[in-house]
Specification:
This protein is α/β, with parallel strands linked by helices. The protein has twelve helices and 21 strands. It has helices at 16-27, 40-44, 54-62, 67-72, 93-96, 107-120, 241-251, 254-259, 303-324, 328-355, 363-378, 380-391, and strands at residues 2-6, 9-12, 32-35, 51-52, 74-76, 78-83, 87-92, 102-104, 124-126, 130-135, 143-148, 151-156, 159-162, 180-195, 205-209, 212-220, 223-230, 265-279, 282-283, 286-288, 294-295. The chain has an eight-stranded mixed beta sheet with strand order 7-6-15-16-17-14-18-21, with helices on both faces. It has a six-stranded mixed beta sheet with strand order 9-3-2-13-20-19, with helices on one face. Helix 9 (303-324) packs antiparallel against helix 10 and helix 11 (363-378) packs across helix 12 (380-391). The longest helix is centred in the last third of the chain and has 28 residues, at 328-355. The termini are far apart. Bound molecules: flavin-adenine dinucleotide. The site of flavin-adenine dinucleotide has 34 residues, from helix 1 and helix 9.
């Protein structure tokens, strides 16, 4: 038998996008139900983003979820770019972005904060929801169905939010003749290692070398996250911890390599690099947000931050709808969100093209990479453009 309930906003996906929107709306008295396919433990075990723009941090504050982020997150006023020929140069974010900065705070931690806040407020987050399906999306009474054990449930909604990531069901519910997908696949991936070690540098180091790209990042002062560019044919099993550390040391400045503290990996994974955008981000009463609609390569840390701007636009539009009776924000949502999404795509593409070693790259293209970097290091205007994008364009 099907059990039917009702809510105002049905949200598919209990990742950062879905949870943040649900928390923000609840604080405005708007009802939500979040349906998440996985268990909470599974969601919290995923190691992903770590660099937050101010816009994201402000939304966490507005959602009353920022207490731990303010205490444990680290404010970074700059980062380094290292090139084997040109050396190591600091990008002074503070100076070049008009006093802006970023916060280093892991996605796992902020997701935990959001879950706890939802729990405290009695928010409804249904885990292990199987076979979630959105229905009647172009009608005024769309609904969701899902299975939990033997029972089938139905939730009647005013609006449905597809915040179910790249592999979710929401985007696939939009007819193929309406949805346009843009994709760019890069011919390499990033092998990432998380280790309980002190980070080699107080600020991130992005490294461009003949052997390929590397990134020294972190989640805290006792948790380091390092990446190296690897061919798509590589596997995690093929990389022992020792082999990873040896390769990383060859791609970073010699003085950093000499003081790098290594340790056993507590997580190791390969992520292929891909750019993707789906347009439009609205179909009837279904609204896509975050990775469900767009993804970027991790270079430049735009993924989670692009999700945040979608949530901001949706949140404002839904509040406008319920509190002021205006549907203008909802009508403009797709165009507004996509305008910013494409700027983040451009920035991620630019940083990826600048810093990676492409297989069989013509000498001409490699020289252009050299010159792009030389220009960046010598121009205040180029540094300002980088800093403005890295710290986050306005919502
Ligand atoms: C390996 C990896 C590394 C990354 N590193 C970075 C980084 O360094 N910097 C950065 O900015 N970004 C990074 N990202 C991107 C960043 O993690 C994402 O942009 C962010 O998670 C987007 O949040 P989201 O809530 O939109 O999607 P997700 O986090 O993907 O959440 C979607 C949720 O929906 C659930 N779901 C899926 N299908 C269904 C369904 N059918 N029914 C119900 N629930 C469903 C999923 O289980 C998931 O919990 C990385 C991503 C990956 C995969």
């Amino acid at each position: 038998m099907t059990q039917t309930t009702k809510t105002q906003v049905g949200i598919i996906g209990g990742g950062p996008s879905g949870l943040l929107l649900s928390q923000l709306l609840h604080l405005q008295g708007i009802e939500t139900v979040v349906l998440e396919r996985q268990s909470r433990k599974y969601v919290l075990a995923r190691v992903r983003a770590g660099v937050l723009e101010h816009g994201f941090a402000n939304l966490m504050r507005e959602a009353r979820c920022s207490e731990r982020m303010e205490k444990e997150g680290e404010i970074h006023h700059g980062f380094y770019i290292y090139d084997q020929q040109a050396g190591k140069q600091r990008v002074d974010l503070h100076k070049y972005s008009g006093d802006n900065s970023v916060i280093v705070y892991g996605q796992t931690e902020l997701t935990r904060d959001l879950y706890e806040a939802r729990e405290k407020m009695g928010g409804i987050v249904i885990h292990n929801a199987e076979d979630v399906k959105p229905h009647d999306l172009t009608s005024v009474s769309p609904f969701l169905t899902y299975r939990k054990g033997e029972d089938v449930h139905r939730i009647d909604c005013d609006f449905i939010i597809g915040a179910d990531g790249f592999h979710g069901v929401s985007r696939k519910s939009i007819p193929k003749d309406i949805l346009k997908e843009y994709e760019k696949l890069y011919p390499f991936g990033w092998l990432g290692v998380l280790s309980r070690t002190k980070p080699v540098s107080p600020e991130l180091i992005y490294a461009r070398t003949e052997r390929g790209f590397a990134l020294c990042s972190m989640r805290s002062q006792v948790l380091s996250r390092y990446y190296i560019q690897v061919p798509l044919s590589d596997t995690e099993e093929g990389w022992s911890d020792d082999a990873f550390w040896d390769e990383l040391k060859q791609r970073i400045p010699a003085d950093d390599a000499a003081r790098l503290i290594t340790g056993p990996s507590i997580e190791k994974s390969i992520a292929p690099l891909r750019s993707f955008v789906a347009e439009p981000m609205r179909y009837g009463n279904l609204f896509l947000a975050g990775d469900a609609a767009h993804i970027v390569p991790p270079t430049g840390a735009r993924g989670l931050n692009s999700a945040a701007s979608d949530i901001y636009y949706l949140y404002s539009a839904l509040v406008e709808h319920y509190k002021k009776g205006s549907s203008k924000g909802l009508e403009n949502y797709s165009a507004r969100a996509l305008a910013r999404v494409w700027k983040a795509q451009r920035f991620s593409w630019w940083m990826t093209m600048l810093l990676h070693r492409f297989p069989e790259m013509p000498g001409y293209d490699r020289r252009l990479q050299d010159i792009e970097l030389a220009y960046l290091f010598s121009s205040d205007a180029a540094m300002s453009a980088l800093a403005e994008n890295y710290t986050g364009l306005p919502f």
